[in-house]
Amino acid sequence: MLDDKGFPFIVLEAKKEDIPSLAGKEQARKYALAQNCRFIILSNGNQHYLWDLYRGNPNIFSRIPSPETVIGYNTFKLNPQSLISEEVKENYIIRTQRPDYDKDPIYIDETQRKNFLEVNKLSLLRKYQVRAIERIQEEVKNGKDRFLFEVATGTGKTLTAAAVIKLFLRTGNARRILFLVDRLELEDQANKAFKLYLRTK
C-alpha cells in the first residue's frame, strides 16, 4: 500500500488459508525494511495481524485495518519524558474525581476526613500502588515499554490500573485503552470502577 505521496506505507504479506498468518513474518520484515515501511499486515484470509516494527510483536485484528487506521498509528507520537516527569502521589485519582477535595472544610477536619472520603467515594492510592506507578516511570526512563504487575487478590488492582490509565492518557502516551477480563461480571465490575475512579466532577 502507498501513502498519499506515492511512497510504500504498508507491506501486506498474504498466505494461503491453510498456512498460519505469522508464517511469513520474517520475510515480510525484510520487505518492509527494504522499502522503509514501518507497518506490516500479515493475513491468511481468516486471521489478520498488524505489525508496527517500532512497537514489538504483531497484534491480532478482527479484520484488515484500513490505511486511514494505520495512518492514525503513524501520526501518533509517544512522549516518554512527560510520562517520566508526571507527579504521582496518593491523591492522583482523587484529583480526577474531585479536584478541589482538599479545600472542603469536612476534609480539612482530620476527625471527619475518613468519613468524607467514604461518603464521596474518593480513593486514595496506597503507598505500594504509588510505588507501582513510579516503577513504570523508572522503566520507561530505562527505555522499556512493557510492564507486568503481579499482586494478590484484594490489593486494589483495578485502582492501580485506573492510575496507570490516567498516567498514559494524561501524558499523551496513549489514545485508547484496552482492558481485558475473562468473565462478563468482571467486565461490569471494572467498567463501574473506572467510571468512579476516572470521572470528572
Task: List the main descriptive attributes of the protein structure presented here.
tt1808, chain A; alpha+beta; single chain; elongated; 9 helices
Strand ordering within the main sheet: 1-2-3-4
Radius of gyration: 22 Å
Count the E strands.
4
**Mean pLDDT value:** 88
Strand/helix succession? EHEEEHHHHHHHH
Largest sheet: 4 strands, mixed
Please state the structural category: alpha+beta
Helix content: 40-55%
Ends distance: 45 Å
Instruction: Give the tally of structural domains.
Output: 2
If helices are DSSP runs of H or I spanning 4 or more residues, what is the number of helices? 9
- Flag low-confidence runs: none
What global shape is seen? elongated
Strand residue content: 5-15%
Task: Describe the protein.
This protein is α+β, with helices and mostly antiparallel strands and 201 residues long. The chain has two domains: 10-75, tt1808, chain A (Alpha-Beta Complex); 80-197, no CATH class. Helix content is 42%, strand content 9%. It has helices at residues 25-35, 67-75, 80-85, 94-97, 105-108, 113-119, 127-141, 157-170, 184-197, and strands at residues 10-14, 39-43, 48-52, 59-61. Strands 1-2-3-4 form a four-stranded mixed beta sheet, covered by helices on one side. Strand 2 and strand 3 (48-52) form a beta hairpin. Helix 7 (127-141) crosses helix 8. The longest helix has 15 residues, at 127-141. It is elongated, with a radius of gyration of 22 Å. The mean pLDDT is 88.
